[in-house]
């Protein structure tokens, strides 16, 4: 039997908001041992993804401390979706197809790890659950 995405999802999801500072987002990543967070709107919809790399590059390129920068200025702009009922292999294929192979979004499948990433602000991608399903809480 194939492993499903929902079998490796964190519940509830650790998220950040558009108006959070990058300091707050980095703190959540540190406290929850993760390298990427879904960014949600005030209505609770997933707007984007934010990675630890996004935080570092925003601080470097903008020359300001993390407490002075907002998540909305550093987050990705494109989100690719998969269903929580999809196989882990299908999610891995989606990440591979969209060249998300370095992003610290980890999908664990028994003994292997799959990492997804992207290289620039215009082509960033991440995998998340479709918003018409259980919402961001089940990412």
Give a description of the structure.
- It contains three helices and seven strands; from the N terminus they run E-H-E-E-H-E-H-E-E-E.
- The protein has a single domain (5-130), classed as Roll (CBS-domain), CATH 3.10.580.10.
- Strands 1-2-3 form a three-stranded mixed β-sheet. It has a two-stranded parallel sheet with strand order 4-7.
- Strand 5 (105-109) and strand 6 form a beta hairpin.
- Helix content is 22%, strand content 21%.
- The longest helix has 11 residues, at 52-62.
- With 139 residues, it is an alpha/beta fold.
Attribute tags:
alpha/beta, three-stranded mixed beta sheet, 139 residues, elongated, CBS-domain, two-stranded parallel ribbon, single chain
Class based on secondary structure composition and strand pairing? alpha/beta
Helix coverage percent of residues? 10-25%
| CATH architecture type | Roll
> What is the molecular shape?
elongated
- Could you tell me the number of beta strands? 7
Structural domain count: 1
The N- and C-terminal alpha carbons lie at a distance of 22 Å
Name the CATH superfamily assignment.
CBS-domain
Q: What summary fits the major beta sheet?
A: 3 strands, mixed
Instruction: Report the total helices.
Output: 3
Relative strand content: 15-25%
Give the strand order, joined by hyphens, for the main sheet.
1-2-3
According to CATH, what is the class?
Answer: Alpha Beta
Uncertain regions: pLDDT < 50 for 5+ in a row?
A: 101-139
> What is the succession of H and E elements?
EHEEHEHEEE
Q: Would you tell me which CATH topology applies?
A: CBS-domain
What value does the average pLDDT take? 75
Q: Return Rg in Å.
A: 14 Å
């Amino acid at each position: 039997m194939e492993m499903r995405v929902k079998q490796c999802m964190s519940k509830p999801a650790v998220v950040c908001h558009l108006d959070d500072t990058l300091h707050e987002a980095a703190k959540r990543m540190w406290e929850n041992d993760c390298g990427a967070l879904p960014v949600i709107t005030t209505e609770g919809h997933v707007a984007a993804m934010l990675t630890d790399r996004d935080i570092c590059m925003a601080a470097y390129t903008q020359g300001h401390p993390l407490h002075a920068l907002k998540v909305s200025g550093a987050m990705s702009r494109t989100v690719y979706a998969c269903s929580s009922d999809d196989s882990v292999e299908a999610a891995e294929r989606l990440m591979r197809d969209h060249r998300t192979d370095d992003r610290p979004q980890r999908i664990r499948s028994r003994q292997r790890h799959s990492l997804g990433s992207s290289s620039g602000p215009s082509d960033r991608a991440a995998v998340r659950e479709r918003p018409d399903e259980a919402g961001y809480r089940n990412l």
